[in-house]
Design goal:
The structure holds 2 protein chains of 2 kinds. Chain A has no helices and 12 strands. Chain A has strands spanning 3-6, 11-14, 19-21, 23-26, 32-38, 44-50, 56-59, 62-65, 75-77, 86-93, 99-101, 105-110. In chain B, strands 2, 4, 5, 6, 9, 10 and 11 form a 7-stranded mixed β-sheet that branches. Chain B has a 4-stranded antiparallel β-sheet with strand order 1-3-8-7, with no helix packed on it. In chain B, strand 7 and strand 8 (75-79) form a beta hairpin. Chain B starts with a strand and ends with a strand. The chains are: A mainly beta, B mainly beta. The interface between A and B is medium-sized, with 22 and 26 residues.
């Protein structure tokens, strides 16, 4: 079946540091890949997505590239802000037509 | 409203009680999903509707869980004879619907209902 493995947290960074959160997946066929973000007290929000190999999703300074050869979709941001503190979830949407999520990575950015 | 709404936001139940959780999807969204999110974990799929048809209920953990969407809009997730292991956040999401717009449809999530079973 489908599965998503993402970097365990928590991750603590200083403001303006570089962020990488690793995500790898196992799926049959050609899934679409997503990063969702959950801010404290709020619901899940779509951050970015990529629907085919080599696509790059980007939003709010975050980027992730769909790498089929390494089955990865790592999230990166060049300079994090305090307001980026949240839980980040990697997910895939596959042939089963449902989202399969990783376990989430808590990010805390200190001023 | 503009987004997916869920009620109640918090529910405390005694073990053995029945509970009903409501989801109001974005108006016009054909597809509706329920997910269960245990503490410190990612959401896990429970069930999926397209209009009023329940197309996939493979994620429902037991026959105590039942979901319906009788008019293809509002959905209710019912849990009978609640157990402590049912304690979790229950998330609802909706999307435009398969075949409408670029696949896959983006799922928009509600704030969730936090269920605590004592």
């Amino acid at each position: 079946g489908n599965s998503v493995t993402q970097m365990e947290g928590p991750v603590t960074l200083s403001e303006e540091a570089f962020l990488t959160i690793n995500c790898t997946y196992t799926a049959t066929g050609y899934p679409s890949l997503f990063w969702y973000v959950q801010y404290p007290g709020e619901g899940l929000q779509l951050l970015l997505k990529a629907t085919k190999a080599d696509d790059k999703g980007s939003n709010k300074g975050f980027e992730a590239t769909y790498r089929k050869e390494t089955t990865s979709f790592h999230l990166e941001k060049g300079s994090v802000q305090v307001s980026d503190s949240a839980v980040y979830f990697c997910a895939l949407f596959g042939s089963a037509r449902q989202l399969t999520f990783g376990s989430g990575t808590q990010l805390t950015v200190l001023p | 409203g503009a987004g997916v709404s869920q009620s109640p936001r918090y529910k405390v139940a005694k073990r053995g009680q029945d509970v009903a959780l409501r989801c109001d999807p974005i108006s016009g969204h054909v597809s509706l999903f329920w997910y269960q999110q245990a503490l410190g974990q990612g959401p896990e799929f429970l069930t999926y509707f397209q209009n009023e048809a329940q197309l996939d209920k493979s994620g429902l953990p037991s026959d105590r869980f039942f979901a319906e969407r009788p008019e293809g809009s509002v959905s209710t997730l019912k849990i009978q004879r609640t157990q402590q292991e049912d304690s979790a956040v229950y998330l609802c999401a909706s999307s435009l619907g398969l075949g409408r717009g670029p696949p896959p449809d983006t799922q928009y999530f509600g704030p969730g209902t936090r269920l605590t079973v004592l």
